[in-house]
């Protein structure tokens, strides 16, 4: 049960936000109304929530930085769950305006409204605000599952315009709690995978490359380690924090899923019947973070959360199946996404 009968989910037509909207719709019938506030940028897609739009779920197409619109919606609800963001690191290296606008000014606009109407506010952030962790060259897989991990006490050290604008938004949320009593919590989650993820991102890009007869592409040597979590586990984590979290606290969400990019690509290739070397190496991204790893102890022990999708292989199998069965969802954009990558990524000769 929850005190929050009417909520706004910003970015609820994007990858993770739409998964959260489905999660609440399916598991929490006591939530009577979900307003999805989404600008429908290239990353937002009405189709992600089409089948549940109706009396309980309403899509409001608009900008989170539009103070008049945000005020009008905020006056009708008990809580805001804030997912909307410009979220792609590569894009943030090409142009920064939208990152400042949405991630910083957008968040500022929302917390001002939450403050005015005394709403519960949950801010969805990323582990990328912490920068990266070192490789452990002495360990197989470079220390995956071992060694240092991020906690809510790790100092911020963002590397890109994406992660620094997310870090800036986290800081103003924290300050609004201290200065104005904003009823906010923050979550910093690791890399998500699952259905509805835009095909510009690593896992769906590789899967849809293979489905399109294009060789997958790996940045550099592929040693960069990410801590993967199924997006449904991210949703249950956010719901747990929204309903049980302590105001002013930050919780890290991760499912102990460390893998380097090469391993993930080789798993996808194997699951899709390809040989382990059927891909190209491409020039690395500037400032590419080495390793992320989340210590999820606080969320597990203080709030009793645990992930359900703990078998990465089976999660990847399901994700491959979803992209295979939903070609209509991604096919039209494939050529443009690859043309965009081709401008900056050069295939390296072996
Ligand atoms: N993708 C990951 O692995 C990951 C990991 C941890 C945290 N996060 C965080 O989760 C959130 C969602 O990430 P995602 O991968 O689903 O992103 P996404 O890019 O798939 O979706 C973002 C959504 O926000 C909407 N949006 C963008 N600008 C907007 C604006 N000004 N006003 C209203 N809506 C706007 C887009 O239309 C889109 O629907 C982000 O805050 C991101 O930082 C993502």
From TrEMBL:
<feature type="region of interest" description="Disordered">
    <location>
        <begin position="137"/>
        <end position="162"/>
    </location>
</feature>
<keyword id="KW-0456">Lyase</keyword>
<comment type="similarity">
    <text>Belongs to the NAD(P)-dependent epimerase/dehydratase family. dTDP-glucose dehydratase subfamily.</text>
</comment>
<feature type="domain" description="NAD(P)-binding">
    <location>
        <begin position="8"/>
        <end position="319"/>
    </location>
</feature>
<protein>
    <recommendedName>
        <fullName>dTDP-glucose 4,6-dehydratase</fullName>
        <ecNumber>4.2.1.46</ecNumber>
    </recommendedName>
</protein>
<dbReference type="InterPro" id="IPR036291">
    <property type="entry name" value="NAD(P)-bd_dom_sf"/>
</dbReference>
<dbReference type="InterPro" id="IPR016040">
    <property type="entry name" value="NAD(P)-bd_dom"/>
</dbReference>
<keyword id="KW-0520">NAD</keyword>
<dbReference type="InterPro" id="IPR005888">
    <property type="entry name" value="dTDP_Gluc_deHydtase"/>
</dbReference>
<dbReference type="GO" id="GO:0008460">
    <property type="term" value="F:dTDP-glucose 4,6-dehydratase activity"/>
</dbReference>
<dbReference type="GO" id="GO:0009225">
    <property type="term" value="P:nucleotide-sugar metabolic process"/>
</dbReference>
<feature type="compositionally biased region" description="Basic and acidic residues">
    <location>
        <begin position="137"/>
        <end position="152"/>
    </location>
</feature>
<dbReference type="Pfam" id="PF16363">
    <property type="entry name" value="GDP_Man_Dehyd"/>
</dbReference>
């Amino acid at each position: 049960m929850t005190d929050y009968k009417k909520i706004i989910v910003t970015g609820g037509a994007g990858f993770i936000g739409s998964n959260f909207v489905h999660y609440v719709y399916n598991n929490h019938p006591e939530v009577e109304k979900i307003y999805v506030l989404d600008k429908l940028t290239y990353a937002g897609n009405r189709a992600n929530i089409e089948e549940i739009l109706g009396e309980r779920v309403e899509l409001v197409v608009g900008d989170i930085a539009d103070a008049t619109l945000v005020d009008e919606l905020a006056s009708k609800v008990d809580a805001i769950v804030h997912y909307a963001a410009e979220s792609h690191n590569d894009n943030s290296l090409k142009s920064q305006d939208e990152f400042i606008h949405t991630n910083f000014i957008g968040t500022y606009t929302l917390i001002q409204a939450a403050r005015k109407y005394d709403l519960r506010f949950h801010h969805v952030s990323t582990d990328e605000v912490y920068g990266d962790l070192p490789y452990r060259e002495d360990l197989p897989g470079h220390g995956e599952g071992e060694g240092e991990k991020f906690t809510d006490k790790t100092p911020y050290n963002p590397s890109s315009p994406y992660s620094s604008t997310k870090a800036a938004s986290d800081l103003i949320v924290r300050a609004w709690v201290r200065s104005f009593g904003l009823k906010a919590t923050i979550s910093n989650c690791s890399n998500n995978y699952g259905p509805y993820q835009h095909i510009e991102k690593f896992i769906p890009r590789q899967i849809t490359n293979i489905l399109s007869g294009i060789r997958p592409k790996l940045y550099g040597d592929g040693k960069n380690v990410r801590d993967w979590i199924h997006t449904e586990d991210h949703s249950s984590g956010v719901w747990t924090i929204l309903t049980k979290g302590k105001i002013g606290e930050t919780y890290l969400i991760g499912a102990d899923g460390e893998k380097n990019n090469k391993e993930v690509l080789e798993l996808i290739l194997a699951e899709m019947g390809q040989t382990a070397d059927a891909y190209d190496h491409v020039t690395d991204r500037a400032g590419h973070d080495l390793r992320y790893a989340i210590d999820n102890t606080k969320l597990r022990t203080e709030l009793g959360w645990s992930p359900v999708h703990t078998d990465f292989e089976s999660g990847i199998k399901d994700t491959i199946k979803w992209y295979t069965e939903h070609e209509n969802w991604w096919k039209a954009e494939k050529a443009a996404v690859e043309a965009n990558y081709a401008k900056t990524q050069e295939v390296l000769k072996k």
